[in-house]
Amino acid sequence: MQKCIIYGGAGFIGSYIAEVLLKNNISVTIFDKKNCSKKNINHIFDNITFVEGDFNNKIDIYESSQGHDYVVHLVSSTLPADSNLNPSYDIESNLLSSLNLFDCCVKHKIKKIIFISSGGTVYGNSVKIPIKETHPTNPLTSYGIIKLTIEKYLGLYNHLYGLDYKILRFANPFGPRQNPKLNQGLIAHMLYRIKNRQPLEIWGDGKNIRDYFSVKDAARAVRLAIEDKSPNRIYNIGSGKGLSVNQVILKFRQILNLNFRVKYVPSRKFDVKRNVLDISLARKCLKWKPIENFNIELENTWKYILDNE
Questions:
Q1: For residues 128 and 130, what is the distance between their CA atoms, to the nearest angstrom?
Q2: Measured by CB atoms within 10 angstroms of the end CB, which terminus of the chain is less buried, N or C?
């Protein structure tokens, strides 16, 4: 049986990836920080190997990666909204630790590493919509810069050492299990505020456009990337469609029948105006396409927040 370790696997996205891999007869190890919440993986805990450790500790990474065929790299210690406050921390905790992981992958002869990058931040303000993988990359956050730099180093490690890799640039995945208390994940965060009878704070005029898609579709893309034999290294993964913040708010009212107040506040310098990914390459070569219905996933997310948060 093939073996895969997911770094950051106890989180929102990682838990769905683990589910998909298990269903496809891939043995799963989840590596996450000490004393992390295991709520997202309790239902599969008996079917996985769980390893607690420090992603910044070379020994932990060396020992945990040994004996696996595949690596999924999901770890990020920062969020787009706060990464510009301390770029040096972003470098130390994310870039340097990623390079250490790549060293271990080379030493252990890992067959392939799947890196989850950020289609929402690496491109910056778009020149053309939808955004192809060949679009210029001009990130406006340290978070996006580090993601892009990690991508470049994967290319270097492939050139120098033959490390095989695939990069998945996720748009904005959402769904049940996303932590709504974080300042990331617009849909979950806004629903959490509505549940707690707090007004929605919208940065700018609400016309900023993003690409939202189901986390279940995101997880399927990882499984297909593991199997992918094409020469492509980078795939955009999203819905291929754009919704403004105001349109999302309208869906809250129409689909979920919610009532709430909206407060518009000044926009932030790092917020891009439009981000919709071109997913045609993933459709053609990865044989992947989004299949989950947005409205149904929205209802599922709302139910989860009502029941759990």
A1: 6
A2: N
| Token pair belonging to 185 | 């994940």
Task: Write out the catalytic residue numbers.
Answer: 143
104: nearest Cα among 159, 67, 143, 141: 67
Give CA–CA dist 91/27, Å, rounded: 31
* Contact call for residues 13 and 215 (beta carbons, < 8 A): yes
d(CA 258, CA 191): 9
Q: Which residues pair with 183 in a beta bridge?
A: none
Half-sphere exposure of 265 (CA within 13 A, CB side): 9
Give the Cα separation of 149 and 154 in Å (integer). Answer: 9
- The pLDDT score that the predictor gives to residue 192 is 97
Question: What confidence tier does 298 reach under pLDDT thresholds 50, 70, 90?
Answer: very high
Residues 6+ apart with CB under 8 A from 85: none
Sign of the torsion angle spanned by Cα atoms 294, 201, 189, 215: positive
In the prediction, which pLDDT does 309 show? 65
Residue 142, CB half-sphere, CA atoms under 13 Å: how many?
Answer: 19
DSSP 101-134: HHHHHHHTT-SEEEEEEETTTSS-S-SSSSBPTT
Residue ranges of E strands in the chain: 3-7, 27-32, 49-52, 70-73, 112-118, 165-170, 172-174, 200-203, 209-210, 212-214, 234-237, 243-244, 262-265
Rounded-to-integer distance, Cα 280 and Cα 112, Å: 23
The DSSP call for residue 77 is S
Q: Terminus-to-terminus CA distance in the chain, angstroms?
A: 37
| Structural domains of the chain sorted by starting position, each given as residue range(s) with its CATH number in brackets | 3-172+213-237 (3.40.50.720), 177-211+240-273+292-308 (3.90.25.10)
